Structure formats: C-alpha cells, structure tokens
Amino acid sequence: MTNEHRDLSWARREELGFIRRVADWTDTVVSGHRWYRTDFLDLREQSLVQAVVRRDGLAVAWFGGGLGAERQRALLMPDDWKPQATDFEVDVLQVQRLDGGALSHGAVLGSLLGTGVDRRKTGDIQLSDSVALVAVCKELTDFLWTQWRQIGRHGCSVSLCTSVVFAPQAYEWKQVNVASFRLDAVLAQVCHYSREQAQTLIKQGKVKLNFVEWVKPDELVQMKDIISVRGFGRIFVREVVGTSRKGREWINVGILLSRLESSDD
User: What is the span of the domain harbouring residue 63?
Assistant: First the structure.
C-alpha cells in the first residue's frame, strides 16, 4: 500500500516522517516477501510500528538483546516466521573502566556516541556496580572493540556477553484521573504540579515528549507516549482504564524517577 493511500490523520505532524518510513518498510516486506530488520526503536516508535504493521496485515517480532530490554529492534514479516534471537543481529557488550571505578549512564552513552556511532544503532544501557551492559547492532561490534577506549578521562575495556537479562525499568505504576489529555493537564496531575507550574516547565524547555523537547502545553498526549521532565523523571502513558462519573479519564501511567532512570531523558 503506497503512502498516498494511507490515512495518517491519527498521527502527529512531527511523527509523519517516521510513519512514512515504516510504511516504506512494510512495502518492502510485501513486494519482496521477505522480512525487514529495523534499528533500535524506543517505546513510542514501537507503538507506531505496531499500528502500521497491524493495519497492513503483517507480523512483527521484537528483540533488544535480552529479556527486559526496553529499546528493541523489530523484524517486520509477511507472516509470523518465528525468528530466533540471532536473526535480530544484536550483540551485548560488557564495558568496564580499567581502574574498576563506578560508571554513570550519561558517561557511558556520551563516550559511546563520541566514537561516532548513531544512537539508533544502540539499545539499552544497564549498569551494575562497575560494569555496563550495552546492546548494539551487530555490525558495530568489531568497530567498538577497537575504537571505544575511554569513558570520560578513564580507559575502558570492551568484551562480548553471551547471556544477558536486562532488568526491566523500575516504573512505579499508578492510575491517575485527568480532565483532559493536554500535555500540561497530564503533567500537572501525575507530578502534583499546578497547571501553571506545568505550563511554565513546558515553555522553559524542561519537558520532552518522546525524547523531543516540546514547548506546546496544549499538545494532546496519546497512549504509549513518554513524557520526560527535568528534575522529576519519566512518565510512560500506557492506557486508558476507565471514565469517572464526571467524565474524567482514568489512565494507567508508569513513573520512573530521575535517580532511577537509565535511558535517555
């Protein structure tokens, strides 16, 4: 199905470019009767891919390097071909400072991107004491073995892991009652801000929607959106669970406070 014949009225204008790329991927799958492997996708991008794939009658499978991974690669298929983990071409690297010192997510990600790799080619980064586990597209592994030599001012070693379980993000799940799906209204209710405080944070550039700085308080939040708030953390809007007698919506959200967050914010 060509892009011209797809109804994209449900999507945000800012997301249309990505959705059209997904549509091109599904066209490739249909015309060639073969699968298409994506780079790593965040939660919102995964939701958009699911929507397009479902509408086009195709199948999709996901893998991010291990159980519990949040950022994942997709395999788009004409039918469910039961792909194996190796089909996703994901490697997980173990990274350590040579002096055994502690690591931070920001330092690991910054040094990784400093080698010149694209963030889309990298998945989750999980820290455990002085070790970082980093999921990457397999084609990057040899390059990173030779080029990733420092984290900040410290030397580092890189090795390949063969068995990985990523601990799921420690979201606190709760239901909140909102009068509107406006970004400022959802933010105020979840974070216990006044509406004016929420609007100020948004206008000051301290709020990101799906990892993009957002300055429009009246933007309507959609399910599977990720709202990041500087100094607070991350909010994952999962689903609508009901409507109150007064017509307000109950939504299920996951909250990841800043001190616990381990991905981009």
Answer: 3-86
Interatomic CA distance for residues 9 and 37, integer angstroms: 26
Domain assignment present for 264:
no
pLDDT tens track for 167-210 = 777 889 999 999 999 999 999 999 999 999 999 999 999 999 98
Q: Are 135 and 71 contacting, i.e. CB atoms less than 8 angstroms apart?
A: yes
Task: Summarize pLDDT for 117-155 with one digit per residue, the tens.
Answer: 999 999 999 888 789 999 999 999 999 999 999 999 999
Token pair in block for residue 136 = 């990457």
253 within some domain: yes
CATH code of the domain covering residue 99: 3.30.70.330
The amino acid sitting at 82 is: K
Torsion on CA atoms 183, 186, 187, 192, rounded to nearest 10: 160
The reply to whether 49 and 26 lie within a common domain is yes
Residue 258, CA atoms < 13 Å, CB-side half-sphere? 7
Please tell me the distance from the alpha carbon of residue 84 to that of residue 214, in angstroms, as a whole number: 38
